[in-house]
Specification:
InterPro entries: FH2_Formin, FH2_Formin_sf, Formin_homology_domain. It holds the Pfam family FH2. Belongs to the formin-like family. Class-II subfamily. This is FH2 domain-containing protein. The chain has 8 helices and no strands. It has 253 residues and is mainly α. Helix 2 packs parallel to helix 7. The radius of gyration is 29 Å and the shape is elongated.
Length: 253
């Protein structure tokens, strides 16, 4: 009998080989899944929440948009609003002047460029926004449960292998060390996950939204689209002004 055949026969004697292989597979994937992928996603969501809430430039822009809305609605029941729905930000490009292509967004960008040019680069405060907008909390919840369930199955197999005898001694030693190393890390990650979920809900509330109706993904995607529209209109304003200056120069000559 060859060594390979003997090895196969020895493997066949190991109780619950499938469960043991799954336990080792979880051990191999653990660091990549938890440290590299899951923690990175949590950090991105948390960073985006902090950036959005701490950006004084974004806050000032929101204030001025509210002021503009109240000015336009003066004399109506909506003329003294204390806030607005986030999706209203995306409607600023829907309202156009009857005499030009200028939208309310173009007007806002012109006003900021003229009176508060330092606000135009508010997007630089939001470096994590685009990456965070691609992350779904529902998927993170599923990943968290999968990691917890995987670790629980590893513990179950370790307990079950206690009666396997000498054939599982190496397996038990390796798995026992692994569990001892990762349990504290799992507690840390689980706590951080809870904090991130609370911060994500608090972000919706910060913008006057109900987190059950306007979850984190919707908040970040709406603001990201607003940023893109704002920058596009600002760029169009700049090109239009450059074109007008060019025409003036030609007329003068």
């Amino acid at each position: 009998m060859s060594k390979h055949e003997q090895y196969i026969l020895d493997l066949m004697k190991v109780p619950r080989m499938d469960a043991k292989l799954r336990a080792f597979l979880f051990k191999i994937k653990f660091n990549i899944q938890l440290t590299t992928e899951f923690r990175t996603s949590l950090n991105t969501v948390n960073s985006a929440c902090d950036e959005l809430r701490r950006s004084t430039k974004l806050k000032e822009i929101m204030k001025r948009i509210l002021y503009l809305g109240n000015t336009l609605n003066q004399g109506t029941t909506r003329g003294a609003a204390v806030g607005f729905k986030l999706d209203s930000l995306l409607k600023l490009t829907d309202t156009r002047s009857s005499t030009s292509k200028m939208t309310l967004m173009h007007y806002l960008c012109k006003a900021f460029a003229s009176k508060s040019p330092s606000l135009l680069d508010f997007h630089k405060d939001l470096v994590s926004l685009e990456a965070a907008s691609k992350i779904q909390l529902k998927v993170l919840a599923e990943e968290m449960q999968a990691i917890l369930k995987g670790l629980e199955k590893v513990k179950q197999e370790l307990a079950a292998s206690a009666n396997d005898g000498p054939i599982s001694e190496g397996f038990r030693k390796t798995l026992k060390e692994f569990i001892g190393q990762v349990e504290a890390e799992m507690t840390s990650v689980s706590d951080f996950y809870s904090v991130v979920c609370r911060n994500a809900d608090a972000l919706a509330i910060y913008f006057g939204e109900d987190p059950t109706r306007c979850p984190f993904e919707q908040v970040t995607m709406t603001i990201l689209n607003f940023v893109r529209l704002f920058r596009k209109c600002d760029e169009e304003n700049f090109k239009e002004e450059a074109k007008m200056e060019e025409v003036k120069g030609v007329n003068v000559n």
